[in-house]
Amino acid sequence: MLPVYTRIREGTRFRYREVDSFAVIDRGAYIPYMFSGDQGQPMKYFRYVNRRYAPPDNWYTEASSMPVDWQAIACDYEFLLVLKPFEPSRIGLATKTVAESSSATLLSVDRNLCSSVPGLTEKQG
């Protein structure tokens, strides 16, 4: 699951920045932005072995010199967890709403984009 953080900083805080971690605890979801030793953070007990593609975690709220690779997202993720409010046109691939609350929307990713791109293949797991 790729979390999409849509909120800007409020003072010195990013409200709800780490709420996606509950999906790891509750459902065993894969989250690419967890603190880990392979990213240079001081976690000796957790390292990603095979890191999936992930755009910068602030791509939605800040201009980035690296565009989001939506084709790679279609190959690597089944779901997007998007905080509200958000603009659906900013999501660069076809999705369907699976569930939503007043805080977030869970979108399923149309994985056909992955299979339609030469050279990209869907990752298992």
Order of helices and strands: EHHEEEH
Number of alpha- plus pi-helical segments:
3
Q: Mean of residue pLDDT?
A: 78
Major sheet size, sense and barrel closure: 4 strands, mixed
Overall structural domain count: 1
Strand order of the largest sheet: 1-2-4-3
How much of the sequence lies in strands comes to: 15-25%
Number of DSSP strand runs: 4
Can you tell me the overall shape? globular
Query: Are there runs of 5+ residues with pLDDT below 50, and where?
Result: none
Verbal overview:
The protein is an alpha+beta fold. It has one domain (2-115). It is 14% helix and 16% strand. The chain has a 4-stranded mixed β-sheet with strand order 1-2-4-3, with no helix packed on it. The longest helix is centred in the N-terminal third of the chain and has 7 residues, at 21-27.
Quick description:
With 125 residues, this protein is an alpha+beta fold. Helices cover 14% and strands 16% of the residues.
Topology:
Elements: E1 2-4, H1 21-27, H2 70-76, E2 79-83, E3 95-100, E4 104-109, H3 112-115
Parallel strand pairs: 1-2
Antiparallel strand pairs: 2-4, 3-4
